[in-house]
């Protein structure tokens, strides 16, 4: 069986802790590799290498640093198929979806090519008599990132590209479920010209994460994953004096107004609810039609579309709409929540519980599910399911619908489908959610805007990518400068007698 490594000091390094985690092929259920789980000593070695390398890297001019990003973009495009295949094999998502995962990371790398512009400071001429004042944006030093399984290419790049473009060294602790692509990205960054030790991958679980949170040299921690872990990392990281940003779970509502184009809304819900088996933090998991008649029309449109969904392994190519979920434990958790939905009285309109794929009986496939008449008190409404399960909550008015989304503890993404500009505008203005779609079901902002939720979906002050990333990965130093008045008249040629 393949034994994966860490990537430390520019080389693949075997784990020394003696602890490993299994990496599955979710389509077959087979263990295809084992990944080492680092201990605090292994993490400390990486930090030592990073802190030495970082000083030289920060002194490289920003444009030269940006050239590494330019070359890295070329290499990502060159290796797109290889990366997508490795990603699908460990994660389970379809190949086009895996290429999209790489692509949305690549776009942030492209944005970071503009780092020299983003890192320019500010200057006030003559802030006082003979006094100038200027502010510099300096690198933090050694930064770390802890990433989830569901975007093993995109989210690491969202973190390390801006961090490194700003002159930091970066230690990535990827998800232990799908660590191969992060290792490949580190190799490619070095092929693009990045000095050794600036991007390192330390694989691991809670032990490695705690070592990151407690290491005094590490200046900042970025985290993306579930809310309980986000809260934990934010608390421990901040109390250790680090700069921390943590992005957590989600329960994204899509409101369907009576005037919406119902075919468009149903198509959008299929992609946003079931794409990537619902394992997206921006997936729509709650549909909120306004009015009984809207709800009936929506369900009527949804059911045949859901029944046509093709579930299968990534090797099925374009014949597959979504693949398996990531682990047997994830599948068990989804099925358990579905049972609570049934027990608590929701109407299971599309029942995917009996789903079985011939030849892939041991894979972690979950058939598509649709619940109707879900209510606020049910577990399937309150909890993030992170699977191919859509819940329909019928609202009697627009106010009730917006109130549902506003009262939910998560606030990552949301959408409204309507032809009424006034309703859409009111929704965008009042809703307490970070990313809003108007007739767009998955409103993921592009690289030059910022990504981040509100409420329990985000802990910290600055979002991911866009201008916020350059704030998060630098600190400001302001210099107030006065020079003694010098010789302005030119040389003196006449001998002056002493006074
Ligand atoms: P997770 O919280 O289980 O794991 C995320 C990371 O934390 C992994 O690297 C993991 O090794 C580490 N970790 C797990 N348990 C830990 C512990 N007890 N102590 C310290 N570290 C620990 O999340 P996941 O299952 O990999 O990813 C799915 C979750 O991520 C979902 O909740 C999803 O909504 C969320 N997510 C959020 C965003 C966002 O931008 N808000 C984006 C993607 C995913």
Automatic annotation (TrEMBL):
GO terms for molecular function: methylmalonate-semialdehyde dehydrogenase (acylating, NAD) activity. It comes from the Bacteria. It is an enzyme of class 1 (oxidoreductase). Its EC number is 1.2.1.27. Residues 13-479 form the Aldehyde dehydrogenase domain. Gene3D superfamilies: Aldehyde Dehydrogenase, Chain A, domain 1, Aldehyde Dehydrogenase, Chain A, domain 2. The keyword Lyase does not apply. Keywords: NAD, Oxidoreductase. InterPro entries: Ald_DH/histidinol_DH, Ald_DH_C, Ald_DH_CS_CYS, Ald_DH_N, Aldehyde_DH_dom, MeMal-semiAld_DH. This is methylmalonate-semialdehyde dehydrogenase (CoA acylating). It comes from Yoonia tamlensis. The lineage of its organism: Bacteria, Pseudomonadati, Pseudomonadota, Alphaproteobacteria, Rhodobacterales.
């Amino acid at each position: 069986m393949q034994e994966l490594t860490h990537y430390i000091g520019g080389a693949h390094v075997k784990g020394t802790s003696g602890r490993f985690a299994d990496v599955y092929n979710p389509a077959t259920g087979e263990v295809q590799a084992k990944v080492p789980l680092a201990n605090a000593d292994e993490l400390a070695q990486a930090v030592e290498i990073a802190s030495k390398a970082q000083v030289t890297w920060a002194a490289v001019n920003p444009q030269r640093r940006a050239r590494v990003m330019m070359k890295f973009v070329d290499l990502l495009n060159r290796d797109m198929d290889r990366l997508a295949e490795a990603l699908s094999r460990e994660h389970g998502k379809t190949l086009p979806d895996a290429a999209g995962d790489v692509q949305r990371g690549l776009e942030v790398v492209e944005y970071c090519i503009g780092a020299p512009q983003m890192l320019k400071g500010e200057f006030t001429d003559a802030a006082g008599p003979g006094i100038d004042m200027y502010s510099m944006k300096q690198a933090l030093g050694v930064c770390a990132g802890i990433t989830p399984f569901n975007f093993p290419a995109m989210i690491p790049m969202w973190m390390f590209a801006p961090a490194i473009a700003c002159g930091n060294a970066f230690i990535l602790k990827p998800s232990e479920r799908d660590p191969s692509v992060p290792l490949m990205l580190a190799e490619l960054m070095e092929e693009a010209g990045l000095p050794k030790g600036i991007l390192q991958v330390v694989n691991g679980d809670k032990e490695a994460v705690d070592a990151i949170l407690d290491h005094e040299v590490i200046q900042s921690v970025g985290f993306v994953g579930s809310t309980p872990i986000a809260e934990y990392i934010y608390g421990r990281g901040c109390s250790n004096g680090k700069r921390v940003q943590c992005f957590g779970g989600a329960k994204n509502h899509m409101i369907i107004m009576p005037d919406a184009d119902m075919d468009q809304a149903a198509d959008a819900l299929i992609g946003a609810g079931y794409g990537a088996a619902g394992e997206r933090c921006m997936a729509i998991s709650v549909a909120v039609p306004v009015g009984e008649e809207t709800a009936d029309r929506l369900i009527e449109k949804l059911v045949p579309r859901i029944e046509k969904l093709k579930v299968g392994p990534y090797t099925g190519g374009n014949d597959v709409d979504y693949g398996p979920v990531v682990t047997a434990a994830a599948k068990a958790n989804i099925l358990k929540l579905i049972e609570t939905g049934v027990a608590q009285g929701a109407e299971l309109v599309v029942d995917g519980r009996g789903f079985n794929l011939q030849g892939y009986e041991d894979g972690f496939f979950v058939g598509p599910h649709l619940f109707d008449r879900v209510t606020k008190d049910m577990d399937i409404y309150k909890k993030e399911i992170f699977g191919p399960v859509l819940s329909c909550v019928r609202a009697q008015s627009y106010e009730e619908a917006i109130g549902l989304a506003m009262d939910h503890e998560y606030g990552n993404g949301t959408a409204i489908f309507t032809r009424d500009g006034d309703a859409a505008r009111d929704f965008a203005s009042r809703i307490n959610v970070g990313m809003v779609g108007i007739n767009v079901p998955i409103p993921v902002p592009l690289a030059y805007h910022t990504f981040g939720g509100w409420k329990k979906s985000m802990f910290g002050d600055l979002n991911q990518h866009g201008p916020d990333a350059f704030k998060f990965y630098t600190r400001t130093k302001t210099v107030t400068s006065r020079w003694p008045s010098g010789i302005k008249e030119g040389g003196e040629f006449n001998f002056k007698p002493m006074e």
